[in-house]
Amino acid sequence: MRIWTGRAGSGKTTAILREIAALSEKGEGRQILLVPELNSHLMERRLAAATHNHGARTAEVLTFSRLADRVFSEVGGLAQQMLTPAGQLLTLQEAARRVQSGLSAWKGLADKPELLQEALRLIDECKTCAVAPETLFAAAEESEDAVLSEKLSDLAQILTAYERLCEESLPDPRDRLTHLRDRLAESHTLDGAAVYLDGFLGFTAQESAVVDAMLAAGVPLSAAVTCDTDYPEIFLTGCKTVQKLTRMAKHHNQTVERIELGESKVARPAGLAALERESLLPVRTPQESADGVRLYEAASPFDECEHAASYIRRKVRDEGARCRDFVVAARDIEPYSAFLAMAMARYDIPVFLAEKPDLLSRPPMALVTNALEAVRNHFRYEDLFSCLKTGLAGLDWDEIDKLENYVLTWNIRGGAWEREWTEHPDGYGLSIDENAKAQLAELNTLRKRAIAPFSALRGALAGEQPAGDCVRALYAFLLAVDAPQRMIDRAAGHEQAGRLQLADEYRQLWEILVSAMEQFAWVCGDMPLTLDRFAQLFRLVLGEYDVGTIPVSLDRVTCGNIERACTENAKYVILLGVNDGLIPKTPSSTSLLSDMDRDKMDALGVELKAYGEERLLMEQETLYRALACPTDELLLTYHTIDAGGGETRPSYFVNTVRELLPDVPFSTHRTETVRDRLQAERPAVELACAYLSGDRTAAVRAAYDYYKDDERVKNAQAQRRGRGPLSSPHTIDGLYGKSLNLTASRVDTFYSCRFAFFMQYGLKAKPRRVAKFDALSTGTFIHYVLEHALDALGKCEGGAAHADQPTVRKACREAVRQYVAEELGGLENKTARFQYLFRRLVRAVEQILDNVIEELRVSDFAPIDYELDFSRSGDLPPVQCEDGDVSVSLSGKVDRVDGYIKNGRLYLRVMDYKSGKKSFSLSDIWYGLNMQLIIYLYALQQEGLDRYRARLTAELNEIVPAGVLYVPVRDELPDTARDTDEEGLRILRDKALRRSGLLSDDMSLLEAMEHGLEGDGRFIPVSIKTRKGEDEPTLAAKSAVADLAKFGRLARYTQKKLLEMGQALRNGSIEADPRKTDRSYCEWCDFRAACRFDETAGDKVRWLKNIKDKEFWEQLGGDDNAEVDT
Question: Among candidates 1040, 1004, 1022, which has minimal Cα distance to 1113?
């Protein structure tokens, strides 16, 4: 046996390839280059190059797996079906179930899916390290540690049962090398062949046994091992491998020739060469040159990836490098995968991620696992829509969105999926019109399509079913949703979009699913399984698979773990995550066997994989692979804040580099991030746009100067000039209609924020609402009860004012009963909490109704209209305002109109029930808010005479405004002390329910509204005072009153604000101009996410200064309506 040793790049592989090429050229014998799986493709290319593509006649590259295939094809066994990863897990589960009565430490393992995977990894260790059950039984007997003895006994029993099951069904693929060792002597595969071992860091016990069998068969063996015997603590595995090969050769009486090639022969810059040579040594000599090494301190893992992308762009542009010249490596690449993909895409760099994706996160696997969870959890929203949103469950995205909106609105769960949906799509309190019926018809069609496959799956998996039947039911589900064809279509879509690696992955996923189901049925057979158990096991089974990928083109950056990515020299290596705990990686052991257990097992002669301190020493070898990989430059990066926001420290190795290379170039994100973004078009354009936000740093200015004529920058600049105005009359007509039909809520929204109006009433966007009895529903309920109860009481003899208390209660309860039947569909299916809260609300509305009735009993004003509708098909036409080309109409409903007839005049006051805490404010009206009562009052004056002549008396001569009032109808009760009596409660309640608004200053009218006015009115917002020496009472200054002239000016001002709104809409105004008093309108705006308010882009807040009533009337003046200084 010959063993070449030396550091990476010392010429070991070159020596082997030259020898093979020379022998091949002479035609002497056969040569087999045996390499690890990861190196096979690379070594095939290198062998072809070394032999000038003529070596295939006598030389070939094999792996242990390919060698097994070659031998088994000759002696038999090649076609034998093997357990897949799914089969291994299921076989282990069945093995644990069979011996569970004899287990001690791991009792119940078969029923703990979370531990089965750990146990499978332990079985894998036993197989790889050639640890037989007999060895474990013997160690259990010998151990003085009772707990460890139980663990070893349990492991031995499980392993014995596992191997017996494999003999009964399908063999474990991890036994292939053991079978190869046993049958190698029967084969002529290696006759006349010389075998060269290269690329192995070390050999497992199984691989060592195969090598030993080769030696026993007299096969000439040569090996190349990366190690430096002067420093075994750095090259621990390599030195152990040399010792093991030497022992095996001597055991077979073979001589061993050691060929020491010493240090690396690769030409590297001085600093990089010193790093490979000395950085891991216990004693280091500081170097004058740091050429070939760079350090970078990043803010975050994403910043590391972005700097790596920028670094690659610079090298490609400035030095003519190719993407294939770069390797981006990390000790664990998985946390970096998403960041790398994003950063490389931003910088237009093609990459190959040499990592195994998490299959369970892929849509086809999520379809299966979430489908099983959905039927387990009675069609729970999260599970069902996670399944539907894979896009593979039979519905398109628009259909899924429609279903999801309804399901969230009405909290659809369980059996509700299989019943007809009849509730209004927009929630409580809405009548089912033709549009709602059409929506419900469409939704029910989608519901049936969506739920049918899930219902069938649930039925097929009900109770306990044989495992084979469970698998067949799952397969039927996949066919029912047409998953196979959808996966084919998606793969084609990824390929067409240039996502070749993802397309290749999708093509493998269906095969994996089918394989998992076949293995499940094969291994579990007729085993009875509940739905819960099947779902748990099948999820575990899928988790054991992975997808293999290869680069889809040659000129790509390779990214991966150090072990996978650093298998050959690359010009440039970027090592990410040189942080404490990451490099070197903190070792961790399986949860079933602790490091202490393994230490004791070593003493008992049971040797598994390296652990603890030895594993930490092996980390040095892993780091060495990264250091020896680059030939031109090594960039080391670390981050100060991790992805979760926690602080991190650099690895000790960063200080080592600085000590060895004092002049090593060092940069940080503070200086480099902006410069990095100048290296590629997309991030540079983003920098140019930052200039528009006021950033004037040199790099931003440079980006702007270069890209200022770019269409993207121009668009950003146009957006920052302000939103809109919309310039196309056609677009404006499409958004709002040719005629501007307004409502009170639309006017309030416009004067609160024009962009919010555009979103809600132009684009018709609306937030997703959950159907619940919230403040909005409460207000609707109170409105309903007051309207219907007062209407019923008004028909009693003497009207509502003369109804006694029992009659009032009866009318109230009848209105509540009607509402429950019409709007809630009864209370029987409501929760106990809902029923309790609803009963409390009924008590509150009874008190509110009592207060209204008490007011009517002391008033000459009586209700003459409820829910008075101003619209084209309503009681009165909509309010029209015109000025030149601008015309607007205001539609809406008035909660209640009260009237009082005197001397042929009908005095009207408009009443509005307010369930919120809003009170009437002239300041609001100045800013265009809450104007509807004034508008409706004057609309009634102009348009209502005929209506009320017909309804009341033909003797009416005119209608005179008497005022407008907000009636509080909140369901909350005032806070009171425990000892407050009934009269005290009434006073507090009256105070809470006192009206706000604006009334006529005519004392006779005020007396008609509330008889016996003294001091503060109980119901109306006036206060009476009597001056000394005067008999006539007068109105206090705080009274909310105005004369008819002021009412007239107020009406004209509200009409002016409507016309201003109409003109602004016709001009295409959509600015984000949210109002703000003590709170900003943005705080509760539904469209904040779409708006992204930005003052640097022209958006601005309108501060609404509170205007006192006196100032309001002064500024309102005559008809000029002078502006208030705000």
Answer: 1040
* Amino acid at site 700: V
pLDDT along the chain (1126 residues), means of 10: 93 93 86 91 88 81 94 87 85 90 88 83 89 92 92 94 89 90 92 93 91 94 92 89 94 92 92 93 91 95 95 93 94 90 90 71 90 92 93 91 90 89 80 87 94 94 92 95 91 85 83 88 86 89 72 77 88 95 78 84 86 78 93 96 90 95 94 86 89 83 90 81 82 91 94 94 85 68 89 87 92 92 77 83 89 93 93 92 89 94 95 85 94 93 93 93 91 59 75 91 94 90 81 86 94 94 94 89 90 81 91 77 39
The length of the chain, given as a count of residues: 1126
- Of the candidates 325, 350, 336, 330, the one whose C-alpha atom is nearest the C-alpha of residue 563 is 330
Tokens of 185: 């002597």
CA–CA distances in Å: residue 156 to residues 92, 132, 147: 13, 8, 14
Give 823's DSSP letter.
I
- Nearest in space to 338 (alpha carbons), one of 312, 324, 358, 323: 358
Per the structure block, which two tokens stand in for 804?
Answer: 């006694």
The enclosing H or E element of 2 equals strand 2-6
User: Is 206:172 a contact under the CB 8 Å cutoff?
Assistant: no
Strand runs labelled E in 299-418: 326-330, 351-354
- φ/ψ of residue 279, rounded to 5: -65, -30
Three-class SS state of 634: strand
CA 721 from centre of chain:
33
Q: Does the CA dihedral 1008-1014-1018-1019 come out positive or negative?
A: positive
Q: Coil, strand or helix: which one is 466?
A: strand
Main-chain dihedrals φ then ψ at residue 440, nearest 5 degrees:
-65, -40
DSSP-derived secondary structure for 113-182: HHHHHHHHHHHHHHHHTT--HHHHHHHHHH-S-HHHHHHHHHHHHHHHHHHHHHHHS---GGGHHHHHHH
The H or E element that residue 598 is part of is helix 595-603
